[in-house]
């Protein structure tokens, strides 16, 4: 558990660095926006391509993944049903905040050091990248442009660098193609910069602002955080029991469901300029709230 919490400490240190950069003006005023665009257009696509190309696609066909996906969908729907006053873009961001798990940045160390198997988080990563992300980005694109035609719905994902990267990685993984090292190494290296840069940009967004400050959608943020850190693990537990999963698998899906909201949500909100404060506050608060929830899950399920 101490090793898992070190993942939180690492993230906190990088976010704090970003906050300091923003607080003391070490970079130009538009640096946050520039970093966000860099992450969205270059760094994250390289990371996603590398992850998907190397993944074992057979892990998508598993009962634990069914539980994780169902719990996420229930939280998406629950937020959408309770946030009718938000505009469409903010509602999509809020729904993602309520059910999109930080499977990479915190999930991998938690799966490694708490569950003793890093592979347990791979199905969730694939589910979110191949299913949730394309749908969410298509909805955000439609909300931003106002287009609701079938053509817009179909073509919007094809113009998104994140989804293109996932599709290309999937093709490489399915066909078994091997990229030459001269090409694979730079792509992987560029992708490795995505995590720290997005965390720094997130920290910069916190500079000079208060969490749940007046004038923001505080109720929607609180709802998203409660759904993500309390309701989603509860859903996962009930579904795991209903499917008759063994104790170790039940423990795993509950722990993974209790992970905080992914920083990717802030990236999407920034890219489409909607629900920015909601995404920022939900990520920050869910990260704090997930610590005691993870500790409680470990205490209840381990002997």
Automatic annotation (TrEMBL):
Transmembrane regions listed in the UniProt entry: 6-26, 38-59, 65-83, 95-114, 120-140, 161-181, 187-207, 219-243, 249-269, 281-301
Main location: membrane
GO cellular component: plasma membrane
Pfam families named among the record's database cross-references: Mem_trans
Membrane topology value: Multi-pass membrane protein
InterPro entries: Mem_transp_PIN-like, Na+/solute_symporter_sf
Localization of this protein: Cell membrane
GO BP annotation list: transmembrane transport
Entry keywords, A to Z: Cell membrane, Membrane, Transmembrane, Transmembrane helix, Transport
Family to which this protein belongs: Belongs to the auxin efflux carrier (TC 2.A.69) family.
Identification of the protein by name: Transporter
Organism: Couchioplanes caeruleus subsp. caeruleus
């Amino acid at each position: 558990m101490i090793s898992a919490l070190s993942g939180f400490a690492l993230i906190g240190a990088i976010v704090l660095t970003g906050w300091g950069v923003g607080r003391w003006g070490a970079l130009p005023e538009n640096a946050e926006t520039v970093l966000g665009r860099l992450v969205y257009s270059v760094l994250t696509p390289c990371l996603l391509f590398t992850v998907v190309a190397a993944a074992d696609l057979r892990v998508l066909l598993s009962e634990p993944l069914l539980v994780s996906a169902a719990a996420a969908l229930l939280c998406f729907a629950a937020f959408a049903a309770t946030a009718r006053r938000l505009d469409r873009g903010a509602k999509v961001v809020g729904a993602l905040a309520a059910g999109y798990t930080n499977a990479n940045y915190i999930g991998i160390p938690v799966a490694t050091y708490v569950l003793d198997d890093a592979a347990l988080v791979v199905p969730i990563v694939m589910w979110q990248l191949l299913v949730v992300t394309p749908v969410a980005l298509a909805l955000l694109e439609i909300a931003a442009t106002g287009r609701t035609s079938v053509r817009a719905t179909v073509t919007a994902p094809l113009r998104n660098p994140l989804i293109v990267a996932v599709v290309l990685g999937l093709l490489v993984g399915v066909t078994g193609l091997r990229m030459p090292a001269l090409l694979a190494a730079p792509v992987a290296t560029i992708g490795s910069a995505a995590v720290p840069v997005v965390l720094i940009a997130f920290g910069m967004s916190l500079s000079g602002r208060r969490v749940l400050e007046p004038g923001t959608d505080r109720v929607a943020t609180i709802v998203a955080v409660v759904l993500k850190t309390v309701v989603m693990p509860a859903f996962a537990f009930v579904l795991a029991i209903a499917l008759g999963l063994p104790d170790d698998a039940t423990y795993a899906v509950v722990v993974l469901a209790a992970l905080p909201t992914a920083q990717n949500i802030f990236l999407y909100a920034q890219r489409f300029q909607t629900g920015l404060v909601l995404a920022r506050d939900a990520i920050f608060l869910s990260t704090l709230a997930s610590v005691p929830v993870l500790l409680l899950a470990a205490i209840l399920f381990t002997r």
